[in-house]
Amino acid sequence: MLKDLIKVANKLDALGLTVEADLLDGLIVKMAEDFTSPLSDSFLKEELNYIVPVKSKEWSWVMPHTWKYSKGFYDSESEHNQSLEAIGSGAGMAAFKIKKECEEFGASFDASCKRFLQLAEESLNEYLEYASDKPSYVEAGRRKWADHVVAFKRECESLISQDKIRQESDRKREAKDLLEEVVPY
């Protein structure tokens, strides 16, 4: 979208409409600044339950479904593997939803992911304080937290990598289209 606005501003300049082009340039700069801001904390907090316990409105703790068992309680290797898959899918869902919201509202995905992890750590620390009299809960929480952070970062990196591949493909297609316009068959 910004690329298109830049093209319009350049056309306005070429047509001698410098006042209009300058106004559009100001809008482009403002929009570009917005791309460095994270999503709001209120949205990010809604996604926390994918990776950490969060307090509900009733002040009870809502646990991610991947925290139901700690490693000591798995009945089988299969159950352990299912939990690891769920961690990946929960972290993946959180990353995906954050990315989509960033695209919709023009926020920075990188800044939003960093802020999300800060909020998740705050929530985890609240939970660990709450559960401090239950050492097995604290240990399970720390272990699950580490698994979730690794999975969330991996999912974010994967989404960024996919975007880079898509952008490169788009650039090649645009270059090919431009070449076909300049040099007809």
The poorly predicted ranges are 69-73
Largest sheet: 2 strands, antiparallel
Round the Cα radius of gyration to an integer and report it: 23 Å
- Strand adjacency order, main sheet: 1-2
**Cα-to-Cα separation, first versus last residue:** 30 Å
Share of β-strand residues: under 5%
Chain-averaged pLDDT: 78
Computed structural class: mainly alpha
Broad shape = elongated
Secondary-structure element pattern, one letter each: HHHEEHHH
Helix coverage percent of residues? Answer: over 70%
The number of helical segments is: 6
Molecular structure report:
The structure is a single chain. With about 180 residues, this protein is mainly alpha-helical. It has 2 domains: about 1-35; about 35-180, no CATH class. The protein is about 75% helix and about 0% strand. It has helices spanning about 1-15, 20-35, 40-45, 75-105, 110-130, 135-180; strands at about 55, 60. Strands 1-2 form a two-stranded antiparallel sheet. Helix 5 packs antiparallel against helix 6 (about 135-180). The protein is elongated. The protein starts with a helix and ends with a helix. Residues about 70-75 have low confidence and may be disordered.
